[in-house]
Design the sequence.
């Protein structure tokens, strides 16, 4: 019973925050201030990641975030630090949550033919965030939180994986459905998205092709309408708007970045197909693609990922080596080959392979993470720490980086900084009780290290309720 209560509390937390903010009657033009939306967005992110299966792949995660950061460079102002996520779910859907957190379902990306379609959906969602549409809808739909709360509670009471998915689906897609983006919102987001794509050197026609493909999935009425069209109304009208914009479109020359994203997209999609479909489905997909292009390194790469997912590491390595013959030195192939060696218990070989990536791209986060975890497996904690600390300085940061940093510092008997990083990990996953414990231990063990005490204080003061410390290095009443 205690576990069920804890689960319900965890799922309802972000919705209760929204309910409070929506019904508080605050007077600003937006229902949420940027700071309120940022905090709620962090809760939202943590809850979605707890309840839905996320794609765990360094290359794919870096690809979607690098693409998003590249597109958002054209924004004059950013209310939030945008972050982009991949959900392992075959539903064709994508949504922008509060605070600039944008989620893409593998089912939608698996339908896409090229990066222009992905950039189109991404630019549209960025348009919603930059125009603060979510905040405006909350102001105009004050009963939304009640409907979302009811749906999430029903999912929570069902229990199990399905219940969790239903609860979070209600929170995520249902939030936007209940907020009911207006046609004017959609028109503005499409116009902004068109502008962002044009300036980023992608083809805005991608929005037309993906919208038409989604429309073809819903011939049987409302029940068959894809989730993305339910949360983003006005499909036919939006296609007409996009076609009108395209009539004035003058293509620009590709940039070096747009070329790189275009060339890597097939490998990005191959990862999602391999990781989101079952073994038979993925095999059918790559088998069909192999018939059309038997020499393609993308197909060998995709089959390697499938075998890696099945834990048949020798066959996976064989496929990746074949892929490298067709695409020598290509980063995603090298990353997956290195990770396969690591999973196969050959960490030194993994480091040797991934060093080939770092020689040409020293800031490749996926390569640094594989290197750090390999050194950690080899119990060379000082070297692992160097790479984890570099990753901490690069946004966004995987939650696991902080946990592993805590482990590595602990193995080196640096207990204060070990507890500090472990506290950061639990803070990020919203387990505040454990975060508070580790911050307190870190402060107790920090001794005269005032710099570390200041960092502990700054992290701890963002926890709910009263701050742990009244001033840096000074205990509060709650600790006595």
Sequence:
């Amino acid at each position: 019973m205690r576990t069920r209560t804890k689960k319900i509390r965890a799922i309802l937390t972000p919705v209760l925050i929204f309910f409070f903010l929506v019904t508080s009657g605050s007077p600003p033009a937006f229902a949420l201030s940027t700071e309120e939306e940022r905090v709620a967005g962090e809760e939202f992110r943590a809850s979605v990641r707890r309840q839905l299966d996320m794609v765990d792949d360094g290359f794919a995660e870096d690809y979607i975030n690098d693409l998003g950061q590249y597109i958002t460079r054209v924004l004059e102002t950013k209310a939030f630090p945008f972050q982009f996520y991949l959900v392992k779910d075959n539903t064709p859907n994508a949504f922008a949550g509060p605070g600039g957190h944008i989620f893409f379902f593998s089912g939608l990306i698996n339908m896409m033919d090229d990066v222009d379609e992905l950039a189109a959906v991404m630019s549209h969602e960025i348009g919603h965030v930059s125009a603060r549409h979510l905040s405006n809808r909350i102001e105009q739909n004050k009963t939304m939180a009640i409907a979302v709360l009811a749906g999430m509670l029903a999912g929570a009471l069902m229990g199990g994986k399905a219940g969790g998915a239903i609860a979070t689906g209600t929170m995520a897609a249902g939030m936007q459905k209940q907020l009911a983006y207006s046609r004017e919102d959609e028109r503005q987001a499409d116009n902004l998205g068109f502008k962002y794509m044009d300036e980023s050197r992608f083809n805005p026609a991608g929005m037309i092709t993906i919208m038409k493909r989604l429309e073809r999935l819903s011939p049987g009425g409302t029940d068959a309408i894809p989730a993305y069209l339910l949360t983003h109304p006005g499909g036919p009208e939006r296609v007409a708007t996009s076609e009108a914009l395209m009539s004035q479109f003058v293509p620009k020359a590709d940039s070096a970045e747009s070329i790189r994203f275009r060339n890597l997209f097939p490998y990005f999609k191959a990862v999602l197909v391999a990781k989101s479909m079952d073994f038979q489905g993925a095999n059918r997909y790559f088998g069909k693609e192999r018939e059309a292009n038997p020499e393609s390194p993308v197909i060998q790469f995709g089959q390697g990922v499938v075998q890696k997912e099945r834990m048949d590491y020798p066959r996976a390595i064989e496929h990746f080596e074949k892929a490298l013959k067709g695409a020598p030195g290509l980063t995603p192939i090298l990353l997956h080959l290195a990770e396969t060696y690591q999973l196969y218990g050959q960490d030194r070989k993994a480091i040797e392979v991934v060093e080939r990536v770092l020689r040409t791209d020293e800031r490749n986060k996926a390569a640094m993470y594989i290197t750090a975890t390999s050194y950690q497996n080899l119990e060379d904690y000082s070297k692992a720490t160097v790479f984890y600390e570099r990753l901490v300085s690069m946004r966004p940061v995987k939650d696991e980086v902080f946990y592993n940093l805590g482990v590595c510092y602990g193995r080196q008997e640096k207990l204060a900084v070990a507890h500090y990083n472990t506290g950061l990990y639990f803070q990020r996953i919203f387990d505040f009780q454990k975060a508070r414990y580790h911050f307190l231990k870190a402060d107790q063990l920090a001794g005269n290290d005032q710099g570390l005490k200041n960092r502990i204080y700054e992290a701890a003061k963002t926890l709910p309720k009263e701050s742990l410390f009244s001033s840096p290095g000074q205990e509060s009443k709650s600790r006595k």
